[in-house]
Structure formats: structure tokens, C-alpha cells
Amino acid sequence: MTVTIVALTTVNTENLDDVSTYLGTTTPLLDKAGARIVTRCEVARTIVGQLTPSMLTIVEYPNEDAIASVFESAEYGYLQEVRERAFLQYEVYQTAERPSEIAIKAALGATEPDDLG
């Protein structure tokens, strides 16, 4: 089952070389993991909350192992200092499995795990 990751980031425009290094390293890691960027968009404004990230990125991974292959890799680990310079804000979240879809399928009579999603 696919797993969705949401990243909220703010690029440090004073360190664009570090941003380039970061993206140049992570893009092949995502490709190797079979991950797919669903959307990447600028955040226009904050409606509720304190901080406004500049970008919202949604990435789908084929499974939990694929996420680990990126975030627990040596290559990603080496990027810690680069990432700290490249981004003013960098937060990554994993979404829950689609509970609303599962609940709807169950309400419609699906009982087998494969039928539930």
C-alpha cells in the first residue's frame, strides 16, 4: 500500500548552492525508492497558524521500506548540514492510512483486508 509524505519547507535563498546539492542528492534517492512527487506548490498564505512555509510537497512511496531507504540512507544522512543551510524550515510528516476510505468501504460491506484497501 502506498504511503504519503507531506513536506513543509522554506528555502534559504541565500544558500541556493546548498539547495541544489540537496535536490541533486535526494532526487535519485526518490527515484531509486520508487517514490513519486504528487505535487509541489508554493504556499500563498497562512490562514491559521504562526509559520508559513514557502513550499508544500506531497510524495507517495510504494511502502514503508521505500521511505526508510531514503531517510535512513547514508546519502541522506550526509546531507544534514547541507539541509540545515539550504532550508530555513524543513518538516516532513507521514500521513495516516486512508481511514476515511477504509471506514466507507467497511460501511459498504467490505470485510476482507484486501477489500478494505
What does this structure look like?
Pfam families: DUF1330 (PF07045). Residues 8-86 form the DUF1330 domain. This is DUF1330 domain-containing protein. InterPro entries: Dimeric_a/b-barrel (IPR011008), DUF1330 (IPR010753). It is a single chain. With 117 residues, the chain is an alpha+beta fold. It has a single domain, classed as Alpha-Beta Plaits, CATH 3.30.70.100. It has helices spanning 16-33, 64-71, 74-78, 80-86, 99-107, 113-116, and strands spanning 3-11, 36-42, 55-61, 87-94. A four-stranded antiparallel sheet has the order 2-3-1-4. The N and C termini lie close together (8 Å).
Protein traits:
DUF1330; 26% strand; Dimeric_a/b-barrel; 117 residues; four-stranded antiparallel beta sheet; 4 strands; alpha+beta; 6 helices; Alpha-Beta Plaits; DUF1330 domain-containing protein; 44% helix
